[in-house]
Write a structure and sequence with these properties.
With about 300 residues, the chain is an alpha/beta fold. The chain contains ten helices and 15 strands. Helix 6 runs antiparallel to helix 7, helix 7 crosses helix 10 and helix 8 crosses helix 10.
Amino acid sequence: MLCALAAAASGARAQTQPDFDAVKIETVPVAPGVAMLVGQGGNIGVSTGADGVLVIDDQFAPLHPKIAAAVAALDPRPVRFVLNTHWHPDHTGGNELFGKGGALLVAQEEVRKRLAAGQFMKAFQREVPPAPPAALPVVTYGDDLTVHWNGDEIYLLYVPHAHTDGDTIVHFRKADALHMGDVFVTSGYPFLDLESGGSLSGTISGCDAALALADAKTRIIPGHGPLGGRDELMRYRDMLVAARERIAKAIAAGQDVEAVVASRPTAEFDASYGNGFIKPEAFVRTAYASLAAESADR
C-alpha cells in the first residue's frame, strides 16, 4: 500500500498511479460501535453511535466517494470528526473533502506542520506538496487528548519518533479497541520514515505503550494489513526488539551496513514478515540507519 502512497504523492503520470476505480472498500466489524474500512492505503477506523460519526484516517482523495458511501452504510449522518494518526498521504488524502463536508480535523501538532509544509520523501523519490488549508487539522494537541463520543472515551496518545514524529495511538476505552496507524502493521515489516522523524526504538516504544493499554480481548486496527490483537502486536514487538539487539550489536562491533545485511539478522522472521511491501533487506538497512544515528547521538 505504501507503493500507492509513492505514486499518488508524486503527481506521476496516470499509468503509474493506482487504479482507484478498481478499489473496493471492505467493512470489517471490530467492536460494538467500531469498524475498520480496508481499501487502498491506511486502514480506516469508524466510530458510530448516538452522537454521530467519527473517522480515523481517510486514505486517498480519489477514494473519498467510496469511503463516504461505506461510512454512510454504517451511519448515514455526516462525519463530525476525522482523526489523523500521522501525516502520510495514504492516511490523510481525504482530509480536504471531509473537512469541506463539515468534519472537524484533529491530529497531533507535528502532523499539521508536515502537512502544511509538504516534503520530499527520499525513500520513494516523491515530492509531496503542501496540503491545501482545508486539509489541515483544525484541532492539534501535544501529548494526548480525549474525545468523549458515542458513549466512549476515545483517548489519543502521542508516541514520539515512532513511524514518524507525529504518530498517535487511538484507544477506545469502553469498546476495548485500538487504532495504531503505522506504528503497527500486520502486513509485514514496518516502513520507518526516518526523514519524518521516525525511528526503530520509537516504534518499539509505541508498541510498548499500546501493549500497556491492551488485554487479551482488545482488537487492534493496524495501519496496514488484517485486524489484529494483543498476541499479534506482542509478536511484532518482539521481532522488532530482536532485530534491534542484533543490529545494534553489529554496529557496536564496527560492522558496516553491507556486512549486517549479508548476515541476515531477520532471517527467522522473514517467512512471517518478509512478504509485504518492505522487504527484509530494506528493513535491515533502515533499522541500521536508525540505530547508527542513535549511537552517534550518545
